[in-house]
Design brief:
single chain, alpha/beta, six-stranded mixed beta barrel, 39 helices, 39 strands
Length: 1245
C-alpha cells in the first residue's frame, strides 16, 4: 500500500520566522562556500552532485578552527569536561573530553563523560531565548530618567521613586506583564548601584540579599556577586536547604553535610540500593558504574513508587508508596536488629558499633505522665561523681558503661574534648582499655517501661507503645543504653523485658515489623524480610560494602529527616559507613565544591570582614512572602499533637530560634544595623552591649517579630546563575503577591485569630510588593527574568573562565571561553565589578565609612555550639536566662565598612588572611606563604585599600586564588592542616596528604586536563594512594571523631524539641495531612468544577530528563519532540476516574494556585500520585486557565513553604547553624491538588 502525503509547496514559507530571520537565511550567512553548489528554494539546504567532491559538505561540516576545553555550570552533578568546537568565530558543536585521569586497571573509567543534554547546550549560545542586551522594566526606566533629569543625582532619583507610592506601584504592578526595554550598560549599572547605595543608607545593608545556587558548578561566577554583597554587608541566601536537597539527617547523625562517595566507588559495593535516586536520569554520566558493577556480582535494587528509568537496570524492584520510605526502612531494621543483634551477635557489627556509633552511650529515663518513663538526655561526666566531673567541658562528655569494670567510663572523642586545652590529644576514637557495653541486658539491676511514640494511627495523631528496657541506677539516675532503647523502639523483644511486643514478623498491629511496614508501603512483608537479611549478610561477607544511593525521591518530604535516619540506620549498624563501597550516597545536586576553603574565604569576603551574613533561604521566604499568615494550624497541629509546642505557632518558634541565636534572620532588627552602631556611639556604649540593653528594654525588636512593617521588608534582591521564580520558589504565587505585588492565583485563607502566633505582630492586611528592585543576571529568558525589573545579559559557560567540581568524581577542571561573550553579554565577574565600581563612586557622597552591627547565629564547628547544655531550651525573653551574645543571643560583631573602597576591596585580597589566617570546619590554617605566592602570580594592587595586596582583577586571578587557598588543591596546605588536627586528635593524619605536599594545582593546569584533588581536612574521606573517595574513611581508619556531641555517628538526639516531637530515635512519620492542616480534599476524593469531575492526588515535582540542567525544554528541538509545553504524568486509573485522556488539557487547582498543562497518561504511574517535573518554565505554551482566566502557573504554583521546628534548632553540638549545613528545607512533596480535564480543550493564550 502506498500512502500519499500532501506536502506544501517548497516555495511556501513555513511561517516560523520573522522578516529578520528570513533575511539572514537568504544571505546564506552560515553556509560554507562550495563551487557548483545549489541552494534549495526555502534557503535551508545546500546540495551538490559529484563523486569525491560530493563529500565536501561532510568534511566542511566537521571542519573547525579551534577546540576549547570547557564545561557546563549546571546542577546535574556531572561536571563533565567538553571539547567546544569553533569555526569562523561561531561555536558549532561540542563533544566529550576523553582525557580524565585513570580510575585504575581494575575498574571502568570516568570517560567518556557527558550526556545528550550537554551535547546540545551550544544551541543556547545563539537561541531566541538568549538575553543579548541589558533590559529594564520600561515604566521604571522612564521614572528613573525623569527623576534624574530633575535632581541629577542617581541615588536621589531612586529615592524619589521609592518615596512616591504611586510611582512605585506603577512599576511593581507591571512585573510579569512584559514591558522590558533595552538600555545601555552604563545606565543600567548606575540604576542598580544607586538602588544599593540608597537601600544601605535608608534601611541598612541587611535589607539587600543575593541568591546564586550551587557554587561547585562555577565558584568564580558565584563569588562575583557574593563578594560584592558581603563587602557591603548584605546577606547571601542559602541554596541547599532551600532546594530541599539538604538532608538534615546528615548533620543530625554525622555532624557533617553531604560528604558522599564518588561514583567510581559504586563499583566497590557488593550490594547497591537506589532508593529515591533515579541514577540514569539524574546522574547520567555516572550510571555506567551501576550497570557495569552487576557484572562482578553486585546486586542492584531499585526502590521507587513508579516504573522509573532506573528500575529497568535493577535486579529487583521495590515499589514503595510515595513518602513512606521510612516505614520500609524500619521494617528492614526490625529484621536486622532482631536476627543480628538480639538473637545473635555478630563480631563485626559489635566491634563497629562500640567504637563508631552512640549505641553504647547511656541515656537517662524521665518519669512520664503515667507509670511509664520517657527517654531523656545523654548522661555526661558533669552529671556524675566521677573523676572527670570537674574537667573542662564536663557537661559535654557523654559516658558509657565499661563492660570490663562494670563502672561508668568517659571515652575520648566527644565534643567536650574538641575545645579547650585539656582536650588536646584526646579528641579521638581510641577506646584504650574501655570496653563499652552495647546493652545493659545481663548487667542490669531492673527493668523499666518506656513510652515510644508512633505516628501511623488513623488521623495521624501521635500514639504510644510501652515497652521494657534493662536499666541501672547510676548517680541517682535511671539509665539504659541507646541500643536498648533502639531495640525496644523497633519492637524487638528480648527475654525478661516487659511491655507490648509484636507476636512476630506477621504482626501488623505495631511498629516496626515487616507486616506493619507492608501495610503502609505496599511492599510485601516477605520481600522486606528477605532484603533485610541480604543486606546484613552482605555487610558481614564483604566487611561493610553495602551502599544506598538516595536522593530527592526520599529527601523532598517534610519529614525527610526521619526517612533518612531510618535508612542510615541500615548502613550504620551494619558497619558500612566509612568503607569503600559502603554507606550512604546522597545525590541531589552538584554540591561538593572540593576547594571549599579558598572559595568560602574569597566569595564571602572573609579576607576583609568577618563574620559574613548568611541566611537560610527557606525561613527568609516563609517570612518575607508572608506565607506564615496562611498557617491555618498551630505548631502542635503540625506536630500531630505531641504537646511540646502547645499554644504556639510555627512563627513563634522561628522567632524564638532567631532571638536565641540558633538560626539567622535578615533583616535582623527593626532598625538599621548602621543606625544601631551610631546610636551606641552616641550613648557611649559598645555596640553589642547597647543592642543587648535595647533588646532587654523592649525598645529594639527582631524584624521577624513584625515582618509586615515597612522597615522590616527586604528591599533589593539580585539573582544570578539562578531561576528562582521558574525553579525553586516554593509558594510561587505568594512570591508574586507579597514580594512582587503583581497578579497571582492565591486563594488560601489567612489564619483565624485562634491559630495565629502569639508573639508576632499581625496587621489586618499583609504587605504586598515588598521588594523595591529585582535584578536577574542570566544568559536566557526565564520565569525570573519575566518578573524582574532589571535583566542583565550573562556570558554562557563557553564564554568565561571558571572552575568546576562535583560529588561524583575527584577532579577539578575548568571553564574556558571558546568565544568572547556575544552581543552585549558580560561575564558574572565583569558585571559585578562594574556594579561595585559605580557603587563605590556613588558611596563617596552618600555613605562614607560606617560601622555595621552584624548578628550571627551560633556556628557549628566552633565553641559556640556548646551554648545549650543538655539541649535544654531556656529563653531570655521569659526571664529564664540572661541575654548573652554568643550564648543565649546571636553573636554580635562589628564591621567597619569603607563603602567608597568597595571596588578596591573586591579586586584585591584583604589583610585578614595573613593576620588571622583561615578556618574551615574548625581547622586553622596559616596562609602567609600562599598570599606571598599570589602576590607573585597575580601581581599586587598599587593604590587604595588593597595596596600591596594580591590582585583579583580578573576571573582567572580569582580561580587561581581559590586553588592556592584550598587544601584539596594545595598539598602544602593540606599537610599543614592535618598537622594542626593532629594536635587535637593525638593521632597521625598528615601522611594522608604528604605524598602531595609539593603539589599546587593552578588554573592553567585545569585547562589542560581534569586534575585529581588531594586528601584534605576539608573532607572526611581519603584518596591517598589513588583510592576512590568514600566519606568517613578517615574517621573509621584514623579514629578521627565525627563532629557530633558524642564524636560518634548518632542514632539518638536529645534536644528538648527533638524529644518533645517524638523523634529522639528514627520513627516513621507519614506525609503531612493536608486535609487536617488546610482543608484540602483527601487523596482519592472527588468533586465537580466547571462541569468536570476532579480527583484529589498527591502532587510531586521530580526531575524531567529534558527540562533541567543543560537542556531547558524551551528550545525548538525539545518542544518538537515533546508535548510542546508543560506536562504532568498521571496513572491511567486516576485518569479513568475523571475522564482524562492522554494529551488532554488539564487544570490542577489547590489553595496555593493553578496550573494548566497537558496530561501524559501512563500505567507506569501509581494510582493517587501525579508528577509535574520541575523547572518547566511558564514561557512557552502556557494558556489562560478556566479557573481564573489568567495564565497558568509553574510547578511551584501549587506548593508552599512548610517549616519543621527541629530544623531550626541551634547552639547544640551538631545541631548548630552553618551555611548550607542545617536548616529548614523547601520541601514540597507532601502537597495535594485537585486535577480535572478542561471543559474547553481549545485553549486561549
Amino acid at each position: 500500500m502506498t500512502l500519499e502525503v500532501e506536502r506544501p509547496d517548497a516555495a511556501q514559507p513555513a511561517g516560523l520566522d520573522g522578516p529578520v530571520a528570513q533575511a539572514l537565511v537568504n544571505t546564506r550567512r552560515f553556509f560554507t562556500k562550495a563551487t557548483g553548489a545549489t541552494v534549495s528554494a526555502d534557503g535551508r539546504t545546500l546540495h551538490k552532485i559529484g563523486g569525491r567532491e560530493g563529500d565536501s559538505f561532510y568534511r566542511d561540516r566537521w571542519a573547525h578552527d579551534k577546540v576549547v576545553r570547557s564545561t557546563h555550570g549546571v546542577n546535574c552533578t556531572g561536571s563533565c569536561s567538553w571539547k567546544v568546537y569553533v569555526k569562523d568565530g561561531i561555536i558549532t558543536w561540542e563533544a566529550q573530553q576523553t582525557d580524565y585521569p585513570s580510575a585504575g586497571p581494575d575498574r571502568p573509567e570516568y570517560e567518556p563523560r557527558g550526556c545528550p543534554r550537554g551535547a546540545a547546550f551550544s544551541w543556547y549560545t545563539y537561541s531566541p531565548t538568549r538575553v543579548r542586551y541589558p533590559y529594564v522594566r520600561g515604566v521604571l526606566l522612564e521614572q528613573f530618567r525623569a527623576a534624574k533629569a530633575v535632581v541629577g543625582d542617581p541615588v536621589v532619583a531612586w529615592a524619589a521613586i521609592q518615596q512616591d507610592p504611586a510611582a512605585r506601584a506603577a512599576y511593581t504592578s507591571a512585573r510579569g506583564k512584559g514591558g522590558l526595554v533595552r538600555a545601555s550598560w552604563d545606565e543600567v549599572v548606575e540604576l542598580v548601584a544607586a538602588a544599593h547605595v540608597y537601600t544601605v543608607k535608608r534601611w541598612g545593608p541587611d535589607r539587600i540579599a543575593g541568591f546564586s545556587p550551587i557554587p561547585a558548578m562555577s565558584p568564580v561566577s558565584y563569588a562575583s556577586g557574593a563578594r560584592f554583597l558581603e563587602l557591603i554587608g548584605a546577606p547571601m541566601l542559602s541554596f541547599y536547604d532551600w532546594y530541599a536537597d539538604l538532608p538534615n539527617a546528615s548533620p543530625q547523625m554525622f555532624g557533617d553535610q553531604t560528604d558522599v562517595p564518588e561514583s567510581g566507588d559504586w563499583w566497590d559495593a557488593g550490594y547497591l540500593m537506589m532508593w529515591g535516586s533515579n541514577v540514569p536520569m539524574t546522574r547520567t554520566p555516572d550510571a555506567h558504574w551501576m550497570t557495569e558493577a552487576r557484572y562482578r556480582g553486585q546486586k542492584v535494587v531499585a526502590v521507587a513508587p513508579d516504573y522509573a528509568e532506573n528500575v529497568k537496570f535493577a535486579d529487583e524492584w521495590v515499589p514503595c508508596r510515595p513518602g513512606v520510605d521510612g516505614a520500609l526502612a524500619m521494617g528492614m531494621g526490625h529484621v536486622i536488629l532482631k536476627e543480628f543483634f538480639a538473637d545473635r551477635q555478630v563480631d563485626f557489627f559489635q566491634d563497629y558499633n562500640r567504637r563508631y556509633t552512640d549505641l553504647p552511650f547511656l541515656i537517662s529515663l524521665e518519669q512520664g505522665p503515667d507509670a511509664a518513663y520517657t527517654t531523656g538526655k545523654f548522661v555526661v561526666a558533669g552529671d556524675l561523681d566521677v573523676p572527670e566531673k570537674d574537667s573542662e567541658n564536663a557537661m559535654w562528655k557523654p559516658v558509657v558503661l565499661d563492660g570490663r569494670t562494670g563502672q561508668v567510663a568517659v571515652p575520648n572523642g566527644s565534643v567536650g574534648f574538641r575545645y579547650g586545652d585539656e582536650g588536646l590529644g584526646k579528641w579521638n576514637l581510641d577506646l584504650g582499655e574501655i570496653q563499652p557495653r552495647l546493652s545493659l541486658l545481663g548487667a542490669h539491676d531492673g527493668t523499666a517501661l518506656v513510652r515510644f511514640p508512633r505516628f501511623d494511627a488513623e488521623g495521624g495523631l501521635v500514639a504510644y507503645e510501652t515497652r521494657g528496657v534493662p536499666v541501672r541506677t547510676i548517680g541517682g539516675r535511671l539509665v539504659t543504653t541507646v541500643l536498648d532503647l533502639l531495640l525496644a523502639h523497633y519492637g524487638v523483644a528480648r527475654p525478661g523485658l516487659p511491655g507490648t511486643w509484636p507476636t512476630g514478623y506477621a504482626d501488623a498491629s505495631v511498629p516496626a515489623t515487616p507486616a506493619w511496614a507492608a501495610e503502609i508501603t505496599g511492599v510485601p512483608a516477605e520481600q522486606i524480610t528477605r532484603l533485610a537479611r541480604e543486606w546484613a549478610q552482605n555487610a558481614i561477607d564483604t566487611q561493610g560494602r553495602g551502599m544506598i544511593l538516595m536522593g530527592a525521591g526520599t529527601n523532598h518530604w517534610f519529614h525527610s529527616d526521619q526517612i533518612y535516619r531510618a535508612m542510615l540506620l541500615l548502613t550504620t549498624i551494619t558497619g558500612c559507613q566509612g568503607r569503600n563501597g559502603g554507606g550512604w550516597a546522597h545525590y541531589v545536586g552538584q554540591e561538593k565544591i572540593r576547594p571549599i576553603m579558598g572559595f568560602q574565604h574569597l566569595a564571602f569576603a572573609l579576607d576583609w570582614h568577618r563574620p559574613p551574613r548568611h541566611m537560610n533561604q527557606t525561613a527568609y521566604w516563609y517570612v518575607n512572602t508572608s506565607q506564615y499568615r496562611y498557617d491555618t494550624f498551630t505548631a502542635d497541629d503540625l506536630d500531630a499533637g505531641t504537646g511540646v509546642f502547645a499554644g504556639k505557632g510555627v512563627m513563634d518558634l522561628l522567632a524564638q530560634s532567631v532571638r536565641l541565636g540558633w538560626t539567622p534572620s535578615y533583616p535582623t532588627f527593626n532598625r538599621s544595623s548602621l543606625t544601631l552602631a551610631d546610636e551606641a556611639k552616641e550613648a557611649g556604649m559598645e555596640p553589642a552591649a547597647y543592642v543587648v540593653e535595647q533588646l532587654k528594654s523592649g525598645a529594639l525588636k527582631f524584624a521577624v517579630e513584625d515582618p509586615e512593617a515597612p522597615e522590616n521588608h527586604p528591599r533589593l534582591l539580585s539573582l544570578w546563575r539562578s531561576n528562582l521564580l521558574g525553579s525553586s520558589a516554593k509558594g510561587n504565587e505568594y512570591f508574586l503577591k507579597h514580594l512582587l505585588g503583581t497578579d497571582h492565583a492565591v486563594t488560601a485563607a489567612e489564619a483565624p485569630p485562634e491559630q495565629r502566633p502569639n508573639g508576632i505582630e499581625w496587621p489586618e492586611h499583609a504587605a504586598e510588593a515588598k521588594l523595591d528592585l529585582l535584578t536577574t543576571i542570566d544568559f536566557r529568558m526565564t520565569s525570573s527574568t519575566l518578573f524582574s525589573d532589571v535583566v542583565l545579559p550573562a556570558a554562557t559557560w563557553y564564554e568565561k573562565h571558571d572552575l568546576s567540581t562535583t560529588d561524583m568524581h575527584p577532579f577539578v577542571h575548568s571553564f574556558s571561553p571558546a568565544i568572547a561573550p556575544p552581543w552585549e553579554a558580560r561575564t558574572d565577574w565583569g558585571i559585578w565589578k562594574a556594579i561595585a565600581k559605580k557603587f563605590s563612586s556613588l558611596a563617596v557622597d552618600h555613605l562614607g565609612t560606617r560601622t555595621d552591627v552584624v548578628a550571627k547565629p551560633l556556628w557549628h564547628d566552633t565553641p559556640e555550639a556548646l551554648a545549650t547544655v543538655h539541649g535544654v531550651v531556656k529563653d531570655w525573653r521569659t526571664g529564664e536566662v540572661e541575654p548573652v551574645p554568643g550564648k543565649t543571643l546571636p553573636v554580635l560583631a562589628v564591621a567597619e565598612r569603607d563603602y567608597p573602597a568597595t571596588f578596591q576591596k573586591m579586586t584585591s585580597i584583604g589583610p585578614l588572611m595573613e593576620k588571622v589566617g583561615m578556618l574551615t570546619k574548625g581547622v586553622p590554617y596559616d596562609v602567609k606563604r600562599e598570599i606571598k605566592l599570589l602576590r607573585r602570580r597575580n601581581g599586587v594592587a598599587k593604590t587604595g585599600a588593597g595596596a600591596g595586596q594580591p590582585r583579583l582583577k580578573s576571573d582567572v586571578h580569582v580561580a587561581d586564588a581559590i586553588l592556592h587557598l584550598s587544601a584539596t588543591t594545595n598539598g602544602h596546605l593540606s599537610t599543614h592542616g592535618f598537622k594542626n588536627v593532629e594536635k587535637r586528635t593525638g593521632t597521625q593524619l598528615h601522611d594522608l596528604a604528604a605524598e602531595h605536599q609539593g603539589k599546587q594545582v593552578t588554573f592553567a593546569d585545569t585547562q589542560v586536563a581534569p586534575v585529581p584533588v588531594i586528601t584534605s581536612p576539608e573532607w572526611s574521606g581519603s584518596e591517598s594512594g589513588g583510592r576512590r573517595y568514600s566519606p568517613f574513611t578517615i574517621n573509621i581508619e584514623r579514629l578521627k571523631p565525627f563532629h557530633t556531641l558524642t564524636g560518634r555517628q548518632q542514632f539518638y538526639l536529645d534536644h528538648d524539641w527533638v524529644i518533645g516531637m517524638g523523634e529522639a530515635l528514627p520513627v516513621h512519620r507519614p506525609p503531612l495531612n493536608m486535609t487536617t492542616l488546610f482543608g484540602e480534599t483527601p487523596i482519592g476524593g472527588q468533586s465537580e468544577s466547571h462541569g468536570q469531575r476532579s480527583v484529589s492526588v498527591r502532587y510531586l515535582t521530580p526531575h524531567n530528563k529534558w527540562s533541567i540542567h543543560s537542556e531547558y525544554q524551551d528550545n525548538l528541538y525539545m518542544l518538537s519532540l515533546s508535548r510542546g509545553g508543560q506536562t504532568i504524568w498521571m496513572s491511567d486509573a486516576d485518569a479513568d476516574k475523571v475522564g482524562i485522556k492522554d494529551n488532554d488539557w488539564v487544570e490542577l487547582v489547590n489553595r496555593n494556585g493553578v496550573v494548566a498543562c497537558r496530561a501524559i497518561v501512563t500505567h507506569r504511574m501509581p494510582e493517587g500520585t501525579i508528577y509535574m517535573p520541575h523547572a518547566q518554565d511558564r514561557m512557552v505554551d502556557v494558556p489562560l486557565t478556566e479557573t481564573n482566566n489568567r495564565r497558568g502557573g509553574i510547578h511551584n504554583s501549587l506548593t508552599r513553604i512548610m517549616i519543621k521546628p527541629t530544623h531550626i534548632i541551634g547552639g547544640y553540638a551538631q545541631l548548630a547553624y552553618f551555611f548550607n549545613y542545617i536548616g529548614p528545607t523547601g520541601n514540597n512533596r507532601d502537597e495535594v491538588t485537585m486535577i480535572r480535564r478542561r471543559a474547553n480543550q481549545e485553549v486561549q493564550y
